Amino acid sequence: MSNVSETAVNELMAKGLRNQWYMICPSNFVADKPVSLRRCGYRMVFWRDTTGIAHALEDRCPHRGVPLSCGIVMGDRIACGYHGVQVDTNGVAVCVPGAPGSKLEGSKSTKTFPLQERNGMIFAYVGDDLHKEPPELVLPEELSSPEFSSFPCYAEWAGDYRYVIDNVMDPMHGTFLHKQSHSMSFGDTKASFAIRETPTGFVFEKEGQRNVNFDWTEYAQTGALWLRLEIPYPKTGGPGGNFHIIGMYTPISETMCAVMHWRCRKVSGWQRDTWRFLYKNRLEARHWHVLEQDRVMLEQCDADANQHETLYAHDMGLVRLRRVLRNQAVAQLTALADAGRHVA
Length: 344
Ligand code: FES
Ligand SMILES: [Fe+2]
What we know:
Low-confidence stretches: none
Number of strands: 17
Largest sheet: 7 strands, antiparallel
Bound molecules: FE2/S2 (inorganic) cluster, fe (ii) ion
CATH class of the largest domain: Alpha Beta
CATH topology of the largest domain: Naphthalene 1,2-dioxygenase Alpha Subunit, Chain A, domain 1
CATH architecture of the largest domain: Alpha-Beta Complex
Number of helices: 6
């Protein structure tokens, strides 16, 4: 049994579980100048080397702690703007101009974050002391199969990322909050739900209702945590059948989060071109309008809104996911404590 404290679990949950990949930002946020972004309890600095490959380090100089992002990029290293210490992409202080030969020189003193660029986004691996090597990042078929075409839609919301996860695990809000929206005005407002296990997570779905409304949400962890849902489309929505959404949500701070939705359809050939045209000209504005309804609602919540709930059966999906993630947090903290490591 674990003896990790409730406070430690809550702190870890607020920063986001460790040992997985996180969606960080669109690829075009990062160029050759250093960019500082807070994610998952860290301040990170990102830049591209001369070959265009993106790198990330903790944004704190190992000498006196000023942000490395205030320094100068020198290809595969960054020189701190304060006293010139150079930290390379492995987190090693390779040059200490003010004190050559000092203990700092040659030491691996800065935390590194392995990166990948996929589907227009930068992903970073956030591991703890026991898991320095990242797992494989397997993205759902909507983002990895040529049969699908997708648009990345990134936003930052003024709220805790967990509220966004809860929102997506709650298909019933579609029938109410998005009632006025195209394609979400149908469906039973008193539906019953069930949970179906999958090899990578579970599906929370309405019993006896498919392809009417926002009828189910899938949660999966495949190196990263993602959620999937489909919204049926009327014929006027063009080819490709249901509209698929893949969501990923990353903590920025306790009051900010990065919100990512890929809007996808199963289309190829001329249908793909039609959908991409239609999306840009007709659908995108509507989709943002729907998402704004979620954002406004969640940003209005007080930080402790989820301490004052009276849940009912429609909330079974989010209750289950909260429990799954909490158990993972306890397991991560227990493993660190057992190994005498300090909590990441
Ligand atoms: S604080 Fe960075 S070199 Fe001194
Ligand atoms: Fe919504």
